[in-house]
Amino acid sequence: MSRDPRLVEPQRVQPGHGSHGGHEAPYDPLRLCVFATVALLGWLLGPVAVVVFALVGFVGYWQARRGGLLRSRCKLGDTRLVLVYLAVVAAAGGAGIGLGWWVW
């Protein structure tokens, strides 16, 4: 059976080689790439992206809270606060969409 060519193994430093001396894997700044992509989508799509991302986050936190998650790694901590924050962000994005249509 052949391997799926879309699955790529990350390159690893061989033990005893590289700047880390083989003791730990090199830092992968994946989050920075994700942040840049989200920022780009926000810039291109404007308030629509704000509403979409806020609603996706809201649904995710709602399901997590119903599943028993009370504290999040989010800076706000309490999942109720995170839900309120995401609802306000979605409303602000909706207002931005509404004002955009009003101005046109």
What does this structure look like?
With 104 residues, this protein is an all-alpha fold. The chain has a domain at 46-103. The protein contains three helices and no strands. The chain has helices spanning 30-45, 47-66, 79-103. Helix 1 packs across helix 2 (47-66) and helix 2 (47-66) runs antiparallel to helix 3 (79-103). The longest helix has 25 residues, at 79-103. The mean pLDDT is 81.
Q: Which secondary-structure class do the elements indicate?
A: mainly alpha
Order of helices and strands: HHH
**How would you describe the shape?**
extended
The average pLDDT value, as a whole number, equals 81
Regions with little confidence, pLDDT below 50 for 5+ residues: none
Percentage of residues assigned to helices:
55-70%
Radius of gyration (Å):
20 Å
What's the number of extended β-strand segments? 0
The major β-sheet equals: none
- Range of strand content: under 5%
Instruction: Calculate the terminal CA-CA distance, rounded to whole Å.
Output: 57 Å
Please tally the helical runs, counting DSSP H or I stretches of 4 or more residues: 3
Summarize the model shown:
With 104 residues, the chain is mainly alpha-helical.
Produce the secondary structure layout:
Layout: H1 30-45, H2 47-66, H3 79-103
Helix pairs in contact: 1-2, 2-3
List the main descriptive attributes of the protein structure presented here.
mainly alpha, 104 residues
